[in-house]
Amino acid sequence: QVQLVESGGGLVQAGGSLRLSCVASGRTFNSYNMGWFRQAPGKEREFAAAISWSGGNIYYADSVKGRFTISRDNAKNTVYLQMNSLKPEDTAVYYCAAGHSKGSWYFRSTSGYVYWGQGTQVTVSS
Fold first, then answer.
1. Contact between residue 86 and residue 20 where contact means Cβ atoms under 8 Å apart
2. What pLDDT score does 22 carry?
3. Phi, psi (degrees; rounded to nearest 5) at 110
4. How confident is the model at residue 101 (pLDDT cuts 50, 70, 90)?
5. Of 34, 95, 99, 118, which cross-links 79 as Cys (Cβ 3.0–4.6 Å)?
6. What is the pLDDT of residues 39-50, one digit of tens each?
């Protein structure tokens, strides 16, 4: 069973930075595609960034491109989301997810993931 635990959320001023971490249990971590999604109050959960199991394919939502960087360290069973130039509209609960699906569409969709973390709150003040 794969379990994901996010950390690193908090309150930050606009223009600041945060780094989220997601640690996965199990020895098969490096075989999963990993994604970050976010959900603001009253809104649907939306894609933010994803990375393939090998790290060779990376995807970003247009809303975060150029500001966020996803990476993974398979030796540490951890995926990261470095968030720079944060904006108030980035405020949301951020979720880490893992899946096996192939195809670029699945990287960007909640349908491509079967395991989810509990979420970590990110609040960006103006």
1. no
2. 97
3. -60, -25
4. confident
5. 34
6. 999 999 999 999
